[in-house]
Amino acid sequence: MPTYKAEIKTVPTGSSYTVTVESGSMSTARQEIEHLYEPIYIRNLRQVGSGSGSDGSIEGTWFLIAILVTIAIAIQFWPITLALLVIWGLYKIFS
Description:
The protein contains 3 helices and 3 strands, in the order ββαβαα.
């Protein structure tokens, strides 16, 4: 999930400080900050990190590529694939 950073102020007499949240979009990040901190204002809300590894999107992409390559190889060598499937099926039936 992307990481968002913003400057907020929570009390009228205090100074502002920076908070960081992880959220799917900027509007959701704003809502999350409003819910957690109940700020007087939110300034300079911006995305500071993509967080690509934390949500598994890269791993999912590699998994999809691996499946597509496996299917392409199975189609390319369909006689061998068919023979292996028949052997596996017979093994499952008789075991």
